[in-house]
Design goal:
seven-stranded mixed β-sheet; about 575 residues; globular; single chain; alpha/beta; seven-stranded antiparallel β-sheet; 26 strands; binds flavin-adenine dinucleotide; about 20% strand
Amino acid sequence: SELCLDRYDYIVVGGGPGGLTVANRLSEVSGISVAVIEAGREVFNNPNVTSVDGFTTALNTAIDWQYISTNQSYASGQTLAYHAGKALGGTSTINGMTYVRAEKSQIDSWGAIGNAGWSWDDLFSYYKKSESLTLPTAAQLSSGVTFVPNDHGESGPLKVGYPYGLLNGSFHTVVENTWQALDLPHNPDVNGGSVRGYTIWQSTLDMVANVREDAARAYYYPVELRPNLHVFLNTTVNRIVWGNSDGAAVASGVEITFSNGSISILKSRREVILSAGSLRSPAILELSGIGNPSILDKYGIGVKVDLPGVGENLQDQPNNNFISSTNSTFNGSIVYVAYGSMPDFFDDWDANINISSYAESVSAAINNTIAAASLEYLFGIQYKLLQNGIPNAETIMETTLNLGLGPNGLLVSPFWLLMPFSRGNVHISSRDPKVYPTINPNFFLVDFDLKVQMALAKWTRKFLATEPMKSLITAEVSPGFTALPENATDAEWESWVKTAFSSNSHPLGTAAMMPRKLGGVVDGKLKVYGTENVRVVDASVMPFQVSGHLTSTIYAIAEKASDMIKEAM
Ligand SMILES: Cc1cc2nc3c(=O)[nH]c(=O)nc-3n(C[C@H](O)[C@H](O)[C@H](O)COP(=O)(O)OP(=O)(O)OC[C@H]3O[C@@H](n4cnc5c(N)ncnc54)[C@H](O)[C@@H]3O)c2cc1C
């Protein structure tokens, strides 16, 4: 096609929350041309995407990449499903729509490890810049919604609100009173930098159209007629193409494959921005010669930049759940969440913490690609955050309605530890870009993660057995007291947690923003070390997990990235 001979100022690889935010903001500048290359299709009219109560209906369909992890050596040897959106809008087209930001001190720690310019105060303004909160209706307020107006944006591209189907009545006070009985306070708004407590969360949804607000609806469709913004759908980026240079590597474009199989080169004048998500951006770097030389050698890929952190530092959270039958029918959606700090659910939690031994075992498990000393430093910061009370537990309540299964009397209570110490990796397994990368999150490599998840499981079960909640529950349907008795031993809890968990779908860190000597891949400007003009803007750059859900923070990172890129124009 004629277009593929065009030259764009910026080429953005991947049309998810990271990529479409950057594409929108850069194409605000007239005279600057931007191309987005997206492997998936448009899903504007796909009911599995648009339905506000449709979470899970898009999973395992054609718009899900449907990755699978390696056998998890520290978690019963099982493989895990990894869902990821393959559509314009990325994973935001198939996700749970939860809008919860990080904890203040968590973002400040990004600056503390050596990323100049990163702090909560700075990112807070970008969270707000991206957001447009639709004020709750009177019915939603009487269903228990609370919020702090100053914590929210009013005119950003991303519409945030509450589902109309929110369960009405007093059920929310039952939940709130039960948490209060367990000394967990109500949090009027978890999006102001302080996450601990019980609340009704906000969702990424367009209350006027009553549809899911994905990244394409927020950041692309409103500006799709801009003549300087071009989206290539059903087109896959294979690798970055390099120009001649003596010093740092200079990208001159990308090699792409169209849906008909033909291969072409798309040229860039200024920068290539990788936003293919934390499971694909590192793979594209490796296919382009940036990464660990021993991995690149294995597939006959010439080394452009020796950067062993590429694909490492993968952090994801393990998700277990209880399902309870009740004496009620829930004909509304329940989006209730409780965030607990360590002392809320785990007595003497830091009695046997051994940061240096965790660092050694993680470093050994990832072939010393990140030195034990670097991990020990990073784990020390993570530990300090826990000591200072940032939430490490999320336990939520939802109904089958939330899961796209319609109303009934079941309550589903998924829960997960937020900040695991375990680290894994994602790497190419072939020089053929069509072959999926190998994903190994190393769940429960660090024993402490298992202990936290077990303590959290007990806390969630305790919640279900505490009044006034208790009176509503008729039975535990899954796993049930036969499989996991009330007085289960630690060995029984451990075995249940390890066999019944799934990925929480929050993988990040695989092109981490950290100093190079710590195993980082991008600097504080999100530029890949050793390159002149390649950045990563997606979940890959987050150096630590967050006590929230990822998209809100990815949009904020991408808003900030856009300003940094504009400054360098
Ligand atoms: C089941 C599930 C539920 C979740 N629930 C929530 C939630 O409730 N709230 C929340 O905040 N977060 C949630 N998340 C996480 C969140 O959706 C993701 O973290 C987020 O979308 C990641 O954004 P991204 O920009 O990093 O990448 P993505 O959204 O994954 O976007 C990457 C894009 O790049 C494209 N791409 C990949 N490789 C190539 C290539 N080689 N060439 C061209 N294009 C390519 C992909 O098709 C995709 O469109 C959930 C995730 C899952 C899987």
